[in-house]
Every structure is written in C-alpha cells, then in structure tokens.
Amino acid sequence: MRQTPDYVLDRPCADDLDQFFSIDPDPRVWTHLLSGRLTDEEEAEAILVRLVFADRELTAAQLGATLA
C-alpha cells in the first residue's frame, strides 16, 4: 500500500466488488472512454477477479468460495 497526502493506494480485493461496481458505471469516470463503462455487475466481478488474482494464477472456479 502506498500513501500520498490525499489518497491511500492499495491493491483491490474480493471485498471491493460493491465499491468497484458503484464507481465504474459512473460516466464521469469514463469521460475519456465511454465504451469502457461497466453496466453489468457480473462483468465487473470478472474484471475485479482478474485484477485481484492476476499474479496468483488462480481460476475463477477456484475463487467461487472467496467471492460468494
């Protein structure tokens, strides 16, 4: 985790799905690339799984219990 005067920057975790999905569909977040906006929570979950576990070589099936 890195801290700056205004922000705490840490890696996303499985518990972040609600926050991730609530921020990502906001059009203000995607003014630079409107087609990147997520409107489907399952798609957001799949992206979050990739972000969280990209360096751990786990599959979505192995993560089912973690995200349930």
UniProtKB/TrEMBL annotation:
Superkingdom of this protein's organism: Bacteria
UniProt organism field: Brevibacterium iodinum ATCC 49514
Protein name: Uncharacterized protein
